[in-house]
Amino acid sequence: SIAYMVTSRFVLGAEYRSRPDNLAIAREDDAHDLFAAWAVTRNATVTAAYANVGSVATFKRQRGALVSLQIAF
Fold first, then answer.
1. Per the confidence metrics, is the pTM higher than 0.90?
2. Are strands 59-71 and 31-39 parallel, antiparallel or unpaired?
3. Could you tell me where the beta strands, DSSP code E, fall in 1-73?
4. Which of 14, 21, 63, 73 is least crowded, fewest Cβ atoms below 10 Å from its Cβ?
5. Residues 15-41: tens digit of each pLDDT
């Protein structure tokens, strides 16, 4: 994982994970993602990400986008 704090409230980053082929029935690919997180206020953050986990078990091309809002009290 690597992240760069652009400002005190905004972060850009990426992650990479290698996976061994431990399943006898299917091939597993390495995974990677890109993300951006913004601290809107002290109690609220918004995160957007794109993840590509490749083949998992018998499911091919597992990838997609995510937007998350987190509020803490």
1. no
2. unpaired
3. 2-5, 10-17, 31-39, 44-56, 59-71
4. 73
5. 999 877 777 776 778 889 999 999 999
